[in-house]
Design a protein that fits this description.
Layout lengths: L9 E8 L2 E8 L1 E5 L5 E7 L2 E8 L2 E4 L1
Parallel strand pairs: 1-6
Antiparallel strand pairs: 1-2, 3-4, 4-5, 5-6
């Protein structure tokens, strides 16, 4: 009998490096709601964990 895994949901994330911005799709983990109802989560980009926050239809790296 196999262990049930929840499906991995990938969200569009806007990553900015210098003057260029790029939209990538990554799985966001540990989504929390801050007191002003702002969503904050963690992603992994290039083997580094980074914090992201919800802004419109995208998530933006903090």
């Amino acid at each position: 009998m196999s262990i049930h895994k929840p499906p991995v949901v990938k969200y569009p994330i806007k990553v900015q490096r210098g003057n260029s911005s790029q939209i990538v799709y990554r799985a966001i983990r540990d989504i929390q709601y801050i007191k002003n109802n702002q969503e904050v989560g963690r992603i992994r980009v290039n083997k580094q964990t980074q914090m992201v926050r919800k802004q419109g239809t995208y998530w933006v790296v903090i």
